[in-house]
Hints:
About 65% of the residues lie in helices and about 5% in strands. The protein is mainly alpha-helical. It has a domain of about 150 residues. Strands 1-2 form a two-stranded antiparallel sheet. A two-stranded antiparallel sheet has the order 3-4. It is elongated, with a radius of gyration of 27 Å. The N and C termini lie far apart (about 100 Å). Keywords: Transferase, Ubl conjugation pathway.
Amino acid sequence: MGREELYITVPSLFRCPISLDVMKSPVSLCTGVTYDRSSIQHWLEEPQAAGVDEFEKIAQFTSYCEENRRFLANLPDSVEAILRVLVRKGGQIEVIESAVRVLDWILLENGVRERIHRLIVRSDYEKFFDSILSVLRNGRLGSKVQSARVLELIASNAESRRTIGEKEAILSALVHLLRTESDMLLADAVLSLLISLSVTRSIKAQLVQLGLVPILSRIISDPNTANPAAERAIKMVHLVSALAEGRIAISEDPTCAVAVLDRLMKVPRAAKEEGVAVLWGMCCAYRDGRVKERVGRANGVTKLLVVMQSEGDAGVVKRMCGDLVKVLRGVAMVDPSSSSGYGRLASLETKTTHIRPY
């Protein structure tokens, strides 16, 4: 009678949760979970051999706690390994999403951004942005948010901002997300990224050409828009209003100026100042007739007086509001009691001196 084979069952506590192999060099971290150092290092040395499940485990490992993130960021060539995943041809979207998730977690660790900056300007890392673009277009909602955050963190120096800003497909994808997605967390992340990129005239002009202004108008006017997203949308309107193309787009949009006006008492001081500056520029500096008429008919004088009252005795916002009240004097305002829809004219007199705020 043949001897039966002996099977030994290895307890799960002795197996690495990433590779499922028996651990040879265990590393216990703050979560209480133990990993095999060699499993992580093997993945870093040969990231192309890792599958969807392994990448997801690496992403989960990174998300657990700060100690895990520091551990991964400090491993030699860890950042390079993650970027190699993002630049390889034909990568699965799930793997790319996990790699983006890892980057999102470790980018704030000491020295990581600098290592990425040195790599992405190299020609052999050109496909990094193609992978980010694929997530922005086809990824899950959370991955899109993480991709926007990763791009913003990378865009912390002038060279990186220029590199990203030159990718028209990325700008187009970001504007498309604002146009088609309703998630406030995503809108906030995308707007924050666009603000960080909008440092050159060419980028702002591209965004205007892509139809950003009507989208910003909708975001600001939507009562369901949370204040952080509304504040960033107002800031973007302020940024593009510095361009002739931006002012034309604001003038042609039937709701943009009024949307900004109606948000003034609902946003913090910085956004309020930027919103008033937009109205001041359109109505006082450039004397746009269409914008003056819309703001006047939207009871703009009364609303601006309320803003002035909230500003105390002095300040640039109060001076700009005073200028606006003077310019809007005599513009027809909608009167609900009027059968024609247009009632009395605003007849408020003011002695405010015309002052250029900038």
